Amino acid sequence: MADDTQPTVVHSVQSAGSLQLVVQVAPASTIPAAQVRAAAIAMDAATGDPAPATLPPPAPALDTPPVTIADLFGTPAEVVRVHALDADTGLLHIQAIPPPADPAADAPAYRLTIGEVSTWFAPESKANVATPSRPVQAPPGQAAINYLGRDYAAFTSLMRSRVSQIVRDDSAWALDHPADPMTTLIEALAYAGDHISFRQDAAGTESYLPTARHRLSLRRHARLRDYGVNDGCNARTALVFTVKSNGVIPAGLQVVTQQPGIMTMNLAATQDLAASTTVFETMADLPVSLLRNNLAYPLSRSVAYTLPQGAIQAQLNTAQTDLVPGQLVAFVQTAAPAGVAQPFGAQVVRLIKVELLPNGNNPPYATMITWHPEDALTKPLTMAVQNQTGMVQLYGNVGLADHGRTIAVTPMPDTVPAGRVYRPIIEVEDPVSAAPMPASVAAFDGSQDIAEAALLVPSAKASLTPDPGEANLCVRMLGERPGMAKVVDLWTARQDLMSTPPAGRAFAAAPEDGYGGNRRHLFLRFGDGAQGEAPAPGTTFTATVRVGDGQSGRVRANALVQIVGSTPMISWVSNPLPATPGQPELNESVRLFATTSFRTNLRGIDPDDWERLAQSDPLVTEADARLVDGYAPCIVGIATTTTTPDGYTYPIAKARLMEYAVLGAPPTIEQEADVPINVSLVVYCSRNTNIGAARERLLRRIGAGAKTDGGPAHFHPTAWPLGRPVVLADLIALLGADPTVSLVVSDPAMDPRVVFKTVNGPDSTVDNIKAGRIEIGSNQRARAGNDSFHPELGIVRLFVAAAK
Hints:
Strand content: 25-35%
Low-confidence stretches: 28-43, 49-62, 127-136, 138-145
């Protein structure tokens, strides 16, 4: 109930430009109806409504304290008149000009202050007052209540407006005070409404790929389009071991960076690692041998020699190497030998052939090793003399290792419930994603030739550069069957369960940020019996996860030098190559490529398909494809990398490309071939031109070497891709650009010395001049060696004459 000592608003009305109210400021038991009616008549007159013919005389003014009026947001109203209607009852007629209000907002509430006391009131609007012709804008800083608002500020304003009307006759609430209980309640409800509104918006937002913001939603939308989201890939490198005895280094051996203050190689299994430690684990069991520790001496000679760039073979002067086809070896040179500016560095290659060289009736005296053509030496490798600076170390105990440390975790819940699907989570901060290690085909045994073996065994280059699109979280689940102690099943993680058979023990794992907290977790989804096996109710699970911040896997060469755990068999370990992790795909990239990835043609149909497929092969350096008379199949010309010995890369690349052929329409894949050309033109120069100098200058411009400015000439091999025709107009333009040239004769009818054809080819100069070009096949490259001793390699002649 309102306090009788407070002013009470008896009647109030608001029009477009006037605020009229009757206020009782003194205690009174009743208000005579005639006085209230007189006040209403006075307000009607002030607002423009029809008034009675006679009005009661105004009563004498009261001695009242100052009167102020302000709206809900503290904007003051201008009080223009305070008049006493009845001195006995204390009725005041107050006239004011209200502040401009938003027409779309609720009816405003006002705070009336008379002296030191105040009260709230909400006036009624006059229905017969015309709407202003021009909407009045709210003053700066004033908030308008918008029913479409769905955030904290809009909810707070809306509830304050409504509450001020509900409790306008009760002055116990101070809505403008932050410590008021009603203010606390309003803010709590506004926060809850804001959160609910966000969840409602998020539910619709995550339903569509273009608007989804959550990584899990993007991943699921993309998988429905057969697009695998790249969540990054851990770093991978090669580890070199020297051992004290033959044996097997197990998978999962942890090799770490140098620990501060600890010089020994073997660390205790319970050793506390420094915070900055980077942990790598071996990816597979590695058989090791004493003979393979270092084959530097069998590789070196009594004189220095060099393996050229592109080499894929080397001879070891011993038959006792213990090397086997399919294993990795590492060439390491840390110091430059005499006469060489820079050391070779390190390169890891995969052997595909190990041959013992016979010595008549005596035992073999040497071993020839051949490695994968994709692992051909990237630069020349100079072998120093034995026991001299710059000797090349050849390590045979080499295995792959990738970044991450395996820890044991407990899923929540760890027991499969009955009656519903199992959806546990694992709280872990930095789970690691890793791509599977490429495996050799079971048919490989080392007896195949080089080309065939290269198709069965992955190269070291491919093994050290995993595809991030194939990476998956390193999570393993062990489920103990209910009622069957010690019967444990292994469950493996996959990107999704869409292609998982009903009996496949697999689950899908995805990293997610925690809801309502800052704890990251892994969200696991097990099968339902149709796509993946459903674990039996009561099965108890334990899990292992590999963790490690992705960027911490970036290590330099020779940084991994210590082993966790006692391993007396190993005497030394290092990584000759640096390691770099794969970056995760951005959300914008997922939205861009997931919608069109299904359009990628994985078969060769038209020339564009074959050129794209060929250029994706690491052995192919150039490709050109054409249709025969406008119809399939295509003729595909490819250029492949050069190795020593040569001749192996083309059959490998061809066999790979044939896997994309459509049944019944295989392409014709041809190896690159040089086509020598024979071009002779007649050039007339201006008067007094030095003919010898002009011929030399023009030949350098259109020859096969370098121009006078050092750039490549017109027929330089690097300027001629596969299939490029020789255009006569290009030659004439180059020659005519010389300021001394006045005429180029290219018609054999004018001068019989003009020649424009291939060497010993079926084409003719007349036909080529008429067509304006020498046609070159898709696998052919025009060549003009311009060597007078070898005209069969192509030649360009110029007959230069000067006017007299």
